[in-house]
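Open question from group meeting: does this chain pack into something compact, or does most of it stay loose? Before anyone orders reagents, we agreed to write out a predicted structure and look at it together. Recording both the input and the output here so the notebook holds the full record.
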Amino acid sequence: MQAKTIKYTVNDPIQELSVTTNSANFTCSAHGCCDQIADETIEQVCDEFIELIPEFFTHGTFTISNEVLTPQISKCLSQRFPEFDFDPYLTQMFYMTKNQETEFMNSIETGIALPEEYRTKLSELPYSLVRHSPSGNAVAFEHIDAVGLLTHQFTLAEHRQKGLGAAVEMHMCRQLIALGLTPFKFVELFNVKVLQTSEKTSYWTRRNTDNGTPSVTTYLGMFNKKSQNQ
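Structure tokens returned:
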């Protein structure tokens, strides 16, 4: 299923809600606004999406929005779907500017720094995946979702603290830049170490509000109460 988008202009700028698919999971994103939108508009958008893609709300999903819109979206959806629980996951977004993309690509021109035993494995494997030899098990990996968001980075515990997480992230970013896409990711607020590392790394820029404070993006999980109890 291709991404479907509904756009509304509300007091300028454009308020954009986009629906994308990743396997059987759906994500609804609200972008382009730092100010509150009228409740009537939020309700109109929700109702149009429900009519457009009813399966979106069958088992559960995530909405992605800023601190201002999340309470409105949560209120609207909870009124329409009382059979769902709503759990917020707070994140900060990091992305690359064009200058950072250039700097990043130059920094890895001669290769991505890795422990010697992993170097050949990463360069030879597709996507960002490192396998252990001889078992063939995945050691570290990362991939993207349908809109190019870096996601699901993971390194097995026994292989951590060796730079593999950073290596698969860099490998994934190199592929995105080569495709003309802007690398970006969301880091949950409880993951303090990754937040601090991302802030210090020269090739990431944290998205801030107009007054310079970190912009918080909320993943609002919707979980069907009936399905959870089965």
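Observations to bring back to the group:
The first strand starts at residue 4 and ends at 9.
Residues 205 and 211 are 16 Å apart (CA to CA).
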